[in-house]
Amino acid sequence: MENTVNGIHHITAIAGNAKRNYNFYANVLGLRLVKKTVNFDDPETYHLYYGDKEGTPGTILTFFPWEGITAGRRGARQATEIGYSVPESSFDFWLKRFDANNIIYNKVSEKFGEPYLTVLDPDGLKLELIASKTADNRLPWETTDVKAENATKGFHSVTITTNKMQPTADILTGVFGYRLLEQHVNRYRFITDAVENAAIVDLVEVAGEVAGHVAGGSVHHVAFRVKNEEVLMQYREKIAALGLHITDKIDRNYFYSLYFREPGGVLFELATDNPGFAVDEPVDELGTHLKLPAQHERFRSTLEKTLPQLY
């Protein structure tokens, strides 16, 4: 779709130990490390991107790993669950794999008619492996241990916990073009028809829930996908017209971004498909090299010595 929000682009979270983070997401969960770069505002900290083979929007989970950071707390005004799409037949594989790696998980449950397996990453970030009711034909990234028949295929959904759902729902429906698909008790499922996958946002309304604390093991922001910079700036006008503060366009090397805090308190980003993760290294070598933005290249020799070893 040309002028629409096309589902989730990426989700960014905060971690503690970088090597532990890499081991869980690349080795246990079987995602590809798509980009190894640094936090543009804090170049002594990694910014790690995990996704599919090409870093396709809708598959990208990113982390700022800060060693020794205090643990966050899930609560209102936060994205609290990250859903990955998996084949339903893969649950036995994942249960055995999580047991073998001492990963905390819950038994398989069901919501909106879809079975899902909840698992916590080493910092306590809540993930869900969900068998979607609709076909997911995306090609997964395979590793030696995680083959295609079990692998994650990218995002299924993201869940936001809120004290009052309507203001956030208004952004999703009135600005982003989502529609309410289903409701069960206090969980409201919104979907965009612009894309087939990574298209769902669940809002969970809990009036008395204490606000969450963004720190280790919590989501920093949720990024929604637009085609290019022209569409990005069209959305800037729409959001600014609502009286919400929104940043100027920011060049993130792999996409262009705008940030604003939606009325429910969650930091939203709009991010472009262009130029993509192959802009500074070939697809076959994604995640292999330390890539630095131009303003931090002068620190390369130091950063290569001081950034933690991932493997």
TrEMBL record:
Keywords, sorted A to Z: Dioxygenase, Oxidoreductase
Query: Span of the secretion signal?
Result: none
Segments crossing the lipid bilayer: none
| Pfam families per the UniProt record, alphabetical | Glyoxalase (PF00903)
Span of domain VOC: 7-132, 154-273
Q: Is-annotated flag, keyword Oxidoreductase?
A: yes
By its UniProt entry, which InterPro entries does this protein fall under?
A: Extradiol_RC_dioxygenase (IPR052537), Glyas_Bleomycin-R_OHBP_Dase (IPR029068), Glyas_Fos-R_dOase_dom (IPR004360), VOC_core (IPR037523)
CDD domains xref list: PcpA_C_like, PcpA_N_like
Please provide, alphabetically and separated by semicolons, the GO molecular function terms listed in this UniProt record: dioxygenase activity
Tell me which domain of life the UniProt entry assigns to the organism this sequence originates from. Bacteria
Tell me the PANTHER family matching this sequence.
Answer: RING-CLEAVING DIOXYGENASE MHQE-RELATED
The protein depicted here goes by the name Ring-cleaving dioxygenase
Q: Which species is the source of this protein?
A: Mucilaginibacter ginsenosidivorax
